[in-house]
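User: Structure please.
Assistant: Input sequence and predicted structure:
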Amino acid sequence: QVQLVESGGGLVQAGGSLRLSCATSGRSRIGWFRQAPGKEREFLTTISWTGGTTYYADSVKGRFTISRDNAKNTVYLQMNSLKPEDTAVYYCAATFRLSSGGYTKKDAYDYWGQGTQVTVSS
């Protein structure tokens, strides 16, 4: 059974920072997504099992950083220069499959956490 648990969300002012954590299990690739009210779940970033490769959506490139500590079974999302439009529920997701379509779509991932709320005030 693969379980993922996100934590670290909260309320922050615009321009501030938060670090989210994803407690993981298994040797999986991890992605971060977010979903705002009335919008589809949006890809943010992904990291390989080894941590050797990362990829970012344009919306967060230069502001967000993904990393992992496999000894602690944890993946992190460091979020800087937060904007009100970053307000959403943030999810981590895991896959053990090699995806011919890449890892920016929801369908590439098979396991999901429960989400953690991030609210950015202006």
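The first strand starts at residue 5 and ends at 7.
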